Amino acid sequence: MMSLYKSLKEEAYEANMELPELGLVLFTFGNASAVDRSKGVFAIKPSGVPYVDLKPEDMVICDFEAKIVEGSMRPSSDTKTHAVLYKEWDKIGGVVHTHSTYGTAWAQAIKDVPIFGTTHADHLISDIPCAPPMKDDYIAGDYEHMTGYQIIDCIKERGLDYNEVGMILVGNHAPFTWGSTVAKAVYNSAVCEEVARMAYLTLQINPNAAKLKEALKKKHYERKHGKDAYYGQGC
Ligand SMILES: O=C(CO)[C@@H](O)[C@@H](O)COP(=O)(O)O
Questions:
Q1: Which residue's CA lies nearest to atom 4 of ligand 1?
Q2: Which of 22, 44, 60, 228 is a good FRET partner for 68, with 20 to 30 A between their CA atoms?
Q3: Which is it for strands 31-36 and 68-70: parallel, antiparallel or unpaired?
Q4: pTM for the full predicted model
């Protein structure tokens, strides 16, 4: 059957397939979605389907209320979280959720990933934020929808710009990332995992390791994201 959303499904499929290739997911852990704002929809991985069995046409098309627009499979159980992020943050083109090992370990420990070095500062100048454990009234509410607000609340409360940060650890849960495209959101997931791993190792070698100086943070971030820089502005 011809679909109006063929290219959007392909984009989301390619992003999902990169997650096991990059070692960011096992089995059916995690999901990626890509948005088409002109049509008011996003394409997301179906729930519980192993990556080895996934096909582009399996991607489920949903609107920003997380209602199915096209697709015969159940969309990811995290669909409402993706929908909230698309609705609230109009500059993002893709969202990724993984349970990558180091990112998830920091999330379970409810700890921000400290900015120890220039690898981290090439991508963001703050610690990778860890959203506090979900409030009881959020858990009692629409859980996946409120996970979106757990993310948004934390970014707001920290005074961060979502368009510069691109990643968060959800306390007790795991990383979520976003980007101007879904490919960029996948990239941010890989960066999040690698930086989380480096920070963990840094603390093994020196539990008193100092965080990066402000001036060095800015220097490295500017080199990659300043005017005319390769990475460009925004996440
Ligand atoms: O967060 C979780 C589980 O804690 C989910 O993302 C993960 O199991 C994937 O679920 P879906 O297969 O996308 O429904």
A1: 173
A2: 22
A3: unpaired
A4: 0.96
